[in-house]
Amino acid sequence: MNVFVIASLLISCVIAQQHPRQLQSQKPEEKPPQKQQQQLEQQQQEQQQQQQQKQLQQLQQQQVQLFIPPFLIGAPPNVTNDFLQLLATAPYRTDKQMEETIERWVARQTITIQSAYKEFKKLALEALAKAEAQHQKIIANLSREAKTADARLIAVTKNSTLTGLQKQMQIQMIIDQLPDKVKEELQKAFQP
């Protein structure tokens, strides 16, 4: 699993949990026929997904601009920019696709960058293992409902068939559907 995709996804999850969107629905005075109601709900869902996609793209562009990985510190600007452009494609790729793309990119770089990347990847995987262990400790103390919600969120993040954008959209839909009590419990549990 690609560390960059995981980091981006975790950042997106934290931001989404800190600023949950309130679903706005307008209730008509009279209930429309079922077919019209379904069409209306579908249109609202499509509009919400488009808005979420646009917000996610803007957020990820900002994150990419602020993120220069340690293995590229001191690299020429054109190399750094090339890598950042590659990272900007993460929302449209699966974890495996992104990891393969990064590995191919690194293989074309200098030995210095390749060595620094290898060390960075090793440290990132160690940090990920520690984070997963910490996550297990945290969820042990959650309510059954919060554990279930957490399991659903983790299942999305580990789904290798989804792109980063698809994962973010599914995570946001899960969060939006959670009762406020569960949202608050998860936010409190995972705050640094």
From TrEMBL:
Feature: compositional bias, Low complexity: 34-44
Signal peptide extent: 1-16
Membrane-crossing segments per the record: none
UniProt xrefs under InterPro entries: ANIS5_cation-bd
Keywords: Signal
Pfam families, A to Z: ANIS5_cation-bd (PF02520)
Coiled-coil zones: none
Domain SXP/RAL-2 family protein Ani s 5-like cation-binding: 82-183
Keyword check for Nucleus: no
Tree of life domain: Eukaryota
Stretches the record annotates as Disordered: 22-44
This protein's name: DUF148 domain-containing protein
Organism: Onchocerca volvulus
